[in-house]
Design brief:
Elements: H1 6-42, H2 52-60, E1 68-69, E2 73-80, E3 83-91, E4 94-101, H3 106-121, E5 134-135, E6 137-142, E7 154-159, E8 177-181, E9 184-192, H4 197-210, E10 217-226, E11 236-243
Parallel strand pairs: 1-5
Antiparallel strand pairs: 2-3, 3-9, 4-7, 4-8, 6-7, 6-10, 9-11, 10-11
GO molecular function, one term: heme binding
Protein name: HEBP2 protein
Biased composition (Acidic residues): 17-29
C-alpha cells in the first residue's frame, strides 16, 4: 500500500480547511440574510437573496473604527439643567449619493433606499471597490407648511468619504444620483428608537418648541440622521432643522 506523501497530506488538509472556512462563511451569510429578512418583514419590506453579500460585507466593516463621521463645525450647544437640548452645526459643501423613495410607509422607504445604497457602497459602482461606511445616513423628509403631516416622498442619502469627494464612483443603479449639497447650518437634536411618521412629527414639533427662532429654518423640509442601521432595535437618530440660506 503506497504511503501518502507529505505534500499530498498538506494539500488535502489545506483543501479541507478552505472548504470548512467557505462553509462557515456561507452559514454566516445565511444567518445575516435571515436576520435582515426577519427585520424587513417587520417593516413590510422583502429583502431579496442578492442582498446577502452586501449585508455580510457591510456587517464586517461596521466596527466603530471603520466608520467615518461626516465632518462639521460646532457653532453652539444649548443646554438646560445639564441636558443637551440641541446643537447648532455647520456642514460644508459635499457630494452625496441620493435616492428618492415613495413607499406607503416611511420605514419601507428608508429600508428599501438603504438597501440600494448598500449595493452601491459594496462594489456595485464604477470603481468595483467597497467604498466605506459614513455616518449618519440621512433621510430628507417633507411636511405641509403647518408641520402637521408628513409627505410620502423622501430622499435617502449617503455622504461620500473624503477620498471620493472629488471623483465619486458612478452607481450601477440609475435610481441613485450623485448630488452636491451646499454648505448648510443645521439645528440638531438627538432621539432614540424607531423612526416612523408619528415619531418624526413628534420630534419636529418638540425641536420647534425648543428653538428660540424656528422661523429662521425651512418650515417644510427636515432631515432624519441615522447613526445605526435600520435593522437595529434601539437606533440612535437626530432630527435636523435646516437654516434658510
Amino acid at each position: 500500500m503506497a504511503e501518502e506523501s507529505p505534500d499530498s497530506a498538506y494539500h488535502s488538509n489545506g483543501s479541507s480547511l478552505e472548504e470548512e472556512a467557505e462553509r462557515m462563511e456561507d452559514e454566516e451569510q445565511e444567518r445575516l440574510l435571515s436576520y435582515w429578512q426577519s427585520v424587513g418583514r417587520g417593516h413590510q419590506v422583502d429583502v431579496p437573496r442578492d442582498m446577502a453579500e452586501p449585508i455580510q460585507q457591510l456587517t464586517r466593516n461596521n466596527s466603530p473604527q471603520e466608520r467615518q463621521t461626516i465632518p462639521f463645525t460646532l457653532i453652539q450647544r444649548k443646554e438646560k439643567l445639564g441636558d443637551l437640548l440641541y446643537e447648532k452645526r455647520q456642514y460644508g459643501k459635499a457630494k452625496w449619493a441620493c435616492i428618492k423613495m415613495e413607499e406607503k410607509q416611511y420605514e419601507q422607504s428608508i429600508c428599501l433606499g438603504f438597501m440600494k445604497l448598500m449595493r452601491y457602497i459594496c462594489e456595485q459602482n464604477s470603481s468595483g471597490l467597497y467604498l466605506g461606511i459614513t455616518i449618519p445616513i440621512v433621510t430628507i423628509v417633507h411636511t405641509n407648511e403647518a408641520q402637521s403631516e408628513m409627505r410620502q416622498s423622501v430622499t435617502v442619502a449617503y455622504y461620500l468619504p473624503e477620498v471620493l469627494q472629488d471623483e465619486p464612483p458612478h452607481p450601477f443603479d440609475s435610481d441613485i444620483i450623485i448630488e452636491e449639497w451646499p454648505s448648510t447650518i443645521v439645528y440638531s437634536r438627538s432621539f432614540r428608537g424607531i423612526t416612523n411618521e408619528d415619531s418624526i412629527m413628534r420630534e419636529i414639533n418638540l425641536l420647534a418648541e425648543i428653538l428660540e427662532s424656528p422661523e429662521l429654518c425651512l418650515q417644510d423640509t427636515f432631515i432624519i440622521a441615522g447613526y445605526t442601521n435600520p435593522a437595529a432595535a434601539n437606533r440612535h437618530n437626530e432630527i435636523w432643522f435646516l437654516q434658510r440660506p
